[in-house]
Amino acid sequence: MRARIVAVLNQKGGVGKTTTSVNLTHALAKLGKKITVIDFDPQSHLTVSLGVVDPQKGGIDEVLLEGRNLAKQLIPVRENLNLVIAGPRLQEIEQLVDGGARRGDLLRKALHEGNRDEDFIFIDCPPSSGVLVANALFAADEILVPMTSDYLALQGLSHLMGTIKKFESALKKSYKFSLVMSRYIPTRRMSKDVLSVIQKYFPGQILATTIRETALLAECPSFGKTIFEYRPGCRSARDFTALAKDFLEGRMM
Amino acid sequence: MAEQDEDSLIGYDPLAWMHRSDFNQDSQKTEVGESEADSSIKFVSSTEEASNLEMDLDQAPDDVSELSSSEGEGAVLVLEPVQNIQNVAILHQRLTQMLGNFDVIDIDASNVTMIDTATLQLLLILKQTAIGLQKSISIDFPSDKFIAAAELLGIAEMLEVDQAASGFF
């Protein structure tokens, strides 16, 4: 069975893409799913968050730029969880000027080579809208959009949806699309109003569990740990376990 | 953008367009092919004539059966591999129709293997006309040949193919 390829995408920064990628993938791995997560952000925040610190080591950059086999770039970081780091040259993809639309198809081709045994491949996208994100959208079957509950994130979501529609039209495909409410502050009225607007436009497409804002989620990357290692059993760990089950079972708001 | 209820903290709803344009339906696709050209088409005979083509919406043909009947939605036009003086007139006709009916037009140029100056000038005029009408024209996934031709003619920037070629429109 071919792995489900999920792009964790939002061109707005600070909405929880990497936090979602780190903790959701670890939660899924703990539930027994075989996961590969690709750090597709040249800032390498996913790599650091999972405790891998080797700025010179190649990763997905070598796969895309030099044609290396993806399987050789896998780093087992947790049980059932493999990481492909960004690598120091990933930013060069954004500067590619030759190849036309084929520049957007590098990742898809790499993921379809060889026999893969993962259940899921997650792509942690950069907060931008360039060639890297185009590659993620060419490759992905599904799009998972972390959203904060503030007005500018809503504005960003509007832009993102326009972009996704263009890709669906150009590539003649329809993505499975879901949103995750991250950094949610239940006591804030604005949070509820933003969620209400999103529910109006995306009925049945918002994962049932909201990830509430906590200091612990901000702290764990500096120790290279996921929330399950940093404070097992805490509220955020429970949120992400519930989110992983929502994701697997298709449980939506 | 639509305004929300008075009690809401969301003053303007940036997602309102998704309902307005019926988000769950794909944009209309219009293929421009040689088969669609009929003998009654009056072909332009030179690039100079092509450059004088005007996007007069009053001249748009009435027969637009393949386009959406609901005005204001986006539409996609897929360019044929060979775009030259022999099919520029039919392309002009199609684009004029679309500009009259849609606010957002995406032109998929990924299949283009040959394009002449007449067609490029037509696209440029269309884009400028759309700006004047507060509408939007995008060249999506331009092929290498399309980009090279646009750069040769010095209109790549005006057609925004550099931005489009980045893979993200």
CATH architectural type of chain B: 2-Layer Sandwich
Radius of gyration of chain B: 17 Å
Order of helices and strands of chain A: EHEHHEEHEHEHEHHHH
Low-confidence stretches of chain B: 26-71, 165-169
The CATH architecture of chain A can be named as 3-Layer(aba) Sandwich
Q: Which sheet architecture does the biggest sheet of chain A show? A: 7 strands, mixed
Categorize the overall geometry of chain A. Answer: globular
Radius of gyration of chain A, in Å, reads: 17 Å
CATH class categorisation of chain A: Alpha Beta
Number of domains of chain B: 1
Mean pLDDT over the full residue set of chain B: 68
Largest interface comes to: A-B, 35 and 31 residues
Structure, explained:
Chain A has 253 residues and is of the alpha/beta class. Chain A has one domain: P-loop containing nucleotide triphosphate hydrolases (Rossmann fold, 3-Layer(aba) Sandwich), CATH 3.40.50. Chain A is built from ten helices and seven strands. Chain A has helices spanning 17-30, 45-49, 60-66, 106-111, 131-139, 151-171, 189-201, 215-219, 227-230, 235-249; strands at residues 4-8, 35-39, 75-78, 81-84, 120-124, 142-147, 176-181. Chain A has a seven-stranded mixed β-sheet with strand order 3-4-2-5-1-6-7, sandwiched between helices. In chain A, α1 (17-30) packs across α10. The model of chain A has no long low-confidence stretch (mean pLDDT 92). In chain B, α2 (47-51) links the parallel β3 (28-31) and β4 (74-78). Chain B has helices spanning 16-20, 47-51, 88-101, 117-132, 144-153, 161-168; strands at residues 2-3, 12-13, 28-31, 74-78, 82-83, 104-108, 114-115, 136-140. With 169 residues, chain B is an alpha/beta fold. Chain B is 34% helix and 16% strand. In chain B, α3 (88-101) packs parallel to α4 (117-132). Chain B has one domain: STAS domain (Transcription Regulator spoIIAA). In chain B, the strands form three sheets. A four-stranded parallel β-sheet of chain B has the order 3-4-6-8. Chain B has a two-stranded antiparallel ribbon with strand order 1-2. Chain B is elongated and about 60 Å long. Chains A and B meet through α5, α6 and α7 of A and α1 and α6 of B. Chain B: This is MlaB-like STAS domain-containing protein. Chain B: InterPro entries: MlaB-like_STAS, MlaB_ABC_Transporter, STAS_dom_sf. Chain B: Residues 85-155 form the MlaB-like STAS domain.
